[in-house]
Design goal:
By secondary structure, the chain is of the alpha+beta class. It has one domain. The protein is about 20% helix and about 15% strand. The longest helix has 11 residues.
């Protein structure tokens, strides 16, 4: 039996600036990060979301930006603050 309240483990912070999420990409994230596979399949049939937590782990001094995207710097963020961003909502 699947425990819906079990913690999701083995998800690590992203190492690079990235874009979030097409529906197809979000389903890949679900499949790649939720184990056992049966739990990912079960969640995929319900309403689910991907919510990113943005939190500075250490100061960032240099970031290579792609001019094809609009970037916003959150100046007030410190290592003690966080932002929640809903990237996908089924």
């Amino acid at each position: 039996m699947l425990d819906d309240n079990a913690p999701i483990e083995d998800v690590v912070p992203a190492r690079f600036v990235h874009i979030d999420q097409s529906e197809t990409g979000a389903r890949e994230v679900l499949r790649d990060n939720i184990h056992p596979t049966k739990l990912a399949e079960k969640l995929g049939k319900t309403r689910w979301s991907i919510i990113n937590v943005w939190r500075p782990i250490k100061p960032v001094y240099k970031v290579r930006l792609n001019d094809n995207f609009e970037w916003t710097k959150l100046k007030s963020m410190s290592t003690g603050s966080a932002r929640l961003l809903r990237c996908q909502d089924s």
